[in-house]
Amino acid sequence: MGEFSATLQHRLREAHASLRAALAAGDADLTDTQLDEIEHLNQIAAAHGISEPARA
């Protein structure tokens, strides 16, 4: 796995973790922000043929 792919997958894992925390805290603004970030990162991943990492 290349550095770009590893970094992107790391950012996706972090964004999903932050999304779970935002949902647990009831923070609607942060939830929306994290959903947007995840969508954007998934678009970048798809454009480069990188699969999204498994979520826990």
Question: Care to give the gist of this entry?
Answer:
The chain has 56 residues and is mainly alpha-helical. The protein is 77% helix and 0% strand. The chain starts with a helix and ends in a 9-residue tail after the last helix.
Structure, described:
The chain has 56 residues and is mainly α. The chain has one domain. Helices cover 77% and strands 0% of the residues. It has two helices and no strands.
Average pLDDT level: 90
Contiguous uncertain segments of 5+ residues: none
Count of helices?
2
The total beta strand count reads 0
Q: In what range is the share of β-strand residues?
A: under 5%
Q: Give the distance, in angstroms, between the N- and C-terminal Cα atoms.
A: 21 Å
Order of helices and strands: HH
The shape is elongated
Fraction in helix: over 70%
Biggest sheet record: none
Q: Helix/strand/pairing class, anyone?
A: mainly alpha
Question: Rg to the nearest angstrom?
Answer: 12 Å
Number of domains: 1
What is the fold's blueprint, element by element?
Elements (H helix, E strand, L loop, with lengths): L2 H23 L2 H20 L9
Helix pairs in contact: 1-2
Structural descriptors:
mainly alpha, elongated, 56 residues
